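Weekly puzzle thread! Below is a chain. First person to post its structure in token form gets bragging rights.
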Amino acid sequence: MTQPVARPAIAAAPLGDVKARLTKAAEDFTAVTLGEMLKPMFNTIDNSNDLFGGKQGEAAWKPMMIDEIAKAMAHQGGLGLAEPVARAMLALQEKKPS
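Winning reply:
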């Protein structure tokens, strides 16, 4: 006798909550994508002659700055990926296990 397939906890949540969580996950995905696209751009900036010299402080804070810029861009619409990604995630969630 086979055991029933356990559905993820997200399936038990109200539909509005599921859509909000999927939208947030899609926006987060867009932010990560944008962050990866921004990293090479920021790596080309030479701050070695600036007032702060671009040493360990810059190395520690630059990744966080890039992440925050990417999150702000994603929140403002980003590349337009969030909506199609959210739709695809919702479609996958609604699929019944075989």
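Puzzle host: Confirmed. Bonus trivia for everyone else. The longest helix spans residues 15-43.
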